[in-house]
Amino acid sequence: MSKSVENLEEVKKMGNLKLIIIVLLAVIFVGGTAFGYVVFFGSNSSSQAKESPEIFKMTLDTFTVNLSDMEYRRYLRTDITLEFFNEKAIEEAELKKHRVRDKIISILSHKSVSDFDSNQKLEKSRVELLGAVNEILGENSQIKALYFENFIIQ
After folding, report:
1. Is residue 143 within 8 Å of residue 89, measured between CB atoms?
2. How many CB atoms lie within 10 A of CB 29?
3. What is the 3-class SS of 93-142, one letter each residue?
4. What is the pLDDT of residues 25-61, one digit of tens each?
5. pTM of the complete model beyond 0.70
6. Contact of 87 with 141, CB cutoff 8 Å
C-alpha cells in the first residue's frame, strides 16, 4: 500500500509541476505579446505622427481648356489639388480662388500637346503653375505642392 500511496503522491507532484509550467508559459506568452505590441505599434504610431504632419490640401474644380495647337482642336481636362503648409494658407486660397483658377486656365491654354509629351515637360508645367499660384497667394500663404489628379488630352 505504501508504494501505491507514494506513486499517487508522485503523480500529484508531476501534475502540479505540469500545471505550474503551463501557467508560467502562459504568463510569458501574454507578457511577450503585450511587450511586442507596445514596442511595434506604440513606437510606430508615435514616429509616424512625427514624420507625417497634418496635410492641408484643397482640390480645385475640374479644368477644361483648349490647347494652343493650330493643326487640331485639342483640349486638356485636369483636376488639380494644391497642398499647403498650414490651414491659414487654405483660407487665403479660398478667398483668391477665382484668381488662382484664372491664372491656371491662362497658363494651360497657352500650352500645346507637345508641352506635355514627356515627364520632364509635365514637371516643368507643374513648376510653372506652382510659381504662378504662389505669386497670387503671397508670401504667407505659399503652396508646397501641386498635383494633377486627372490629366486627359483629347
Report:
1. yes
2. 10
3. HHHCHHHHHHHHHHHHHCCCHHHHCCHHHHHHHHHHHHHHHHHHHCHHHC
4. 777 877 767 766 766 676 544 444 445 568 899 999 9
5. no
6. no
